[in-house]
Structures are given as C-alpha cells and as structure tokens.
C-alpha cells in the first residue's frame, strides 16, 4: 500500500513517475503547494517572466522531445496570460499539460482574489478542461488530462486542469496514491484494416506522379516515412510541421519546386497533415484532378476540407511500414523521368540558394540584406540543429534559407513572438544540440524579457534578431495598397544592449562585414553552453516570398494571391 500524500505531492510524484523532469511556470499563491511539491520531487522549475512564455516553452519542449510538456500558471491573470500559448498548442496539436489553481472552496463566489471560471475560458482551445473538486479525484483527473493531451483516441493538444488551493493541501488516501495511477501512459496503437490497406496500395500503384505531403503526425515515424517514400516512388514536400525529419539527401525531396509538384501530381498523399490554408484547403483549383490518399493517426486529419478517395486511420509508423512492405512486393510503374526532372530542378535551386544568399546586397544606407545574415548563419549550423523561425518577413526568409533536424515556427495560428521562449524550451529539452532562433524585431518584442530566463537557467540558445525597424511585411502591404504606412514603424533599438543588461553575451551588427566574426564568437560561446544574442540591423527593403505572394493582405478565397486567382477562376468568379 502506498503512503498517503497531499494532492500537490501526488501531482508532483505522478509527473515525476511519467518522466517529467522540468515544468515551466510563473509563481503565485494559488499554486504554491504544487510549486513546492515539484521542487521536493526533484523536478526542475524554469521560472519565466510571463505565463504565455511558460506554455510556449512547454510547447517547444514537447515538440523537440516527442513527449509531454508541462506548464504551471497561477489563477486569474495567470491563466488569461497563458491563453495565447494554449491556443497556439491547440492549433499546432502539441501535447501540453497546463496546471493551475483556484481560491479555497470556502471563498467560492465571494469575490476572492483571482476568482474566475478558467474552464469557461479554455474549453474551446483544449482537449480536456476540468476543475478538480475533491482530493480523491486528483489521480484519475491527472490520468485523464494527460491521456487527452497525448491524443489517446483523438488529436493531441493542450489539456488543462485546475484545483482550489485548499484541495492542493488536502491528504489523498493511501489507496488512491498507488502506482497504478501512473501506468499505461503510452498512446494506444491502431492499425488500418486489410481492405483499406489494399485499396491504398492499389491507388499508389496506379499513380504515375505521386506526391507525399507530411504533417504533425509524421514526426512520430521519420524512418518509416523515408522508407515509404522510396517504396512509393513518390516526390516529397515537407511542411513547417515536419521540416528536417527526412534528410535532404533523400531522393524524394522536391520542395524547391513545390508549385509544379502540386499542379502536376496525379496522386496527393497526406501523412498526418491537415489541408489548411498552407495547402490551399486541398482545392482542385490548386491540386488539379489529382486523387487523394489521406493517412493519419487522428480522424480530424482525414476529414478537414476534402475527403480522400481512400483514407487510412492508424498509427503512422505501423501504417507506413506496412504500406512500404506491400509496395515493395508489388511492381508499380511510376513516371521516373518526371520525378527525376523535378528532383534535378530542386537540386539546382538548392545549390544556387547559398550563392544567392551570399550575394544579397546591402541597401543605400549600408544596412545588410536579411539573406546576407542568413547565409553566414547557414554555414555554421550543425545538421542536428533545432531551427526556430519567428515573425513575418523574417520567418519567410528563414524558412527558405535555413535547415536543421528540427524546425519550429508560429504554426497554423500564426502566433508570432514565440522565438525566445521556444528557444529556451528547446534548449532545455535538447541539451548539446544547437538551438538557433531567428526572429524579427517586432516579434522579438513579445517575449524579449525571457532573455532574463535564458540567462538565469543557462539555456544554451542563440537568438538572432533581424532588426529592420518596422513591421516590414505590413509596411509593404500598406504602401502598396493604401499609399502610406501607419503604426508599423519601430526604432532600430539596441537589443544587444538589452541582452547585456541581463548578463547575456550579445553582438550589435550594423554592416555585412561584421557578420562573420561576430557569428564565429557567438557560436563558440553557444558551444560552451552560454545563451547568446545577435542584434543585426537589416534592410527593410528586400521583399520576402510571403510579402510577394499575397500572404500579408489576405485574399478572399485562398492564402496566396496566385491560389486565390486560380480559385476564383475555378469557381467561375473571374
């Protein structure tokens, strides 16, 4: 029989037994029993400067480690501050557990400090949201919340539980503190039926120009995905959700010619990927008459916007491995010349990219082009690096220029401002790996105070600020469409000085000639385990691919102007 524990201690011990080694948190009276219980259980607390950052860090930790991220925030404004982070994890389908507290039950509905219904606020952006009303329920509620976050039977995503502070201090009977309450946390595995697998194999075997597009779910099965690409003789388009999981050397990569691939394919295969705005909602106006095979481990990734001709629901590792086995045993003619041609064009563009980046000229004021900065950064990145791209224009430039084993960005919510917090969470989850966040000066401002957190907790990450003194993508939209810029200009503030004030090593770069020596010093410090910041004054003049494509001004039917025109024509609206 286990010993009786307080509810707070039971939560801490349960998290510890499940493998939780750190929790991202901001202190407060309504969560102090849990806070101290975590410390007593040997769980590291990364104390942050804003609750939104706590959830961002837990998000990045989960994304990098493949496990559960945990955040602890206090009642009232602690929860409301955290909601943007919760919403971002919700849209990105990342398993994060958020714990919070409430005033004692004896003060309920009496106007207590920070008394509000958190559940009503977070229910629409969580997989599970519940207030624990009795100490006896702690273990089972924690089980249920974690299972929901990990996606047992549904999409993974954030789960939220809170409990009054008096319950946190109550004793849970020994019988309810037994180890069975922390067992069996692995996500159940399912497998598609044989008839569905056979239908999928037939669809692939008949295709001449199959193209695979990967998403969130594929992160659990990178080796199986690579083997499936080979067996299916398919072209491959990664996305922001999976960039880097299949090595660039794999012969299926054709991402540099994704427009042609999407238009010319006769079979599109989505693997753990929603058909959201980044994939034109699966519209025939963009994808033509291609057949559609959808493979996912959650039903929601099979039914959004467009149903597949064949759909497979099951564990992606098992499913992809079985499809590859069956395809290897069955000859199927594909258009090898088509794929080889696209692969050749892809390779040409990739080979020419660094030269294009390196030759990007400074503007008339001597401010470096963003691509010039990224070219030098690219040279120094390890293949196993964690890359974080944040902002508007800066994200667009970085997405094209930089590659690493793991790539994180604001995701489908478009939640800019994640850079510093994601970098800290990733650095703590992946010690020994390079962690580099590239962010614009506007987006940096959202969570810039977390530089203090990085220094205090020795989070070895590099934060690169492309400081162009503006919200550049919006400036261009305003000037092109309205003839003037309003509320979109910033200072060329000295963010390096700000970083140094927190005790962080930092470099202020104002010309292209300063980039290489500063990065050499910064990467050396990073390798020694220090957080560092590069503040690079960049030109706001070069247009990013996103600003040129129409993403800034939000066309009516599609995210990109070219897609929108195709959609209007397809609908007969042109």
UniProtKB/TrEMBL annotation:
One of its GO terms (cellular component) is acetolactate synthase complex. GO terms for biological process: isoleucine biosynthetic process; L-valine biosynthetic process. The keyword Metal-binding applies. Pfam families: TPP_enzyme_C (PF02775), TPP_enzyme_M (PF00205), TPP_enzyme_N (PF02776). Residues 197-323 form the Thiamine pyrophosphate enzyme central domain. The keyword NAD does not apply. Residues 402-535 form the Thiamine pyrophosphate enzyme TPP-binding domain. Residues 6-117 form the Thiamine pyrophosphate enzyme N-terminal TPP-binding domain. GO terms for molecular function: acetolactate synthase activity; flavin adenine dinucleotide binding; magnesium ion binding; thiamine pyrophosphate binding. Gene3D superfamilies: 3.40.50.970, TPP-binding domain. Its cofactor is thiamine diphosphate; Mg(2+). InterPro entries: DHS-like_NAD/FAD-binding_dom (IPR029035), THDP-binding (IPR029061), Thiamin_PyroP_enz_cen_dom (IPR012000), Thiamin_PyroP_enz_TPP-bd_dom (IPR012001), TPP-bd_CS (IPR000399), TPP_enz (IPR045229), TPP_enzyme_TPP-bd (IPR011766). Keywords: Metal-binding, Thiamine pyrophosphate. Belongs to the TPP enzyme family. This is Acetolactate synthase. It comes from Salinisphaera orenii YIM 95161.
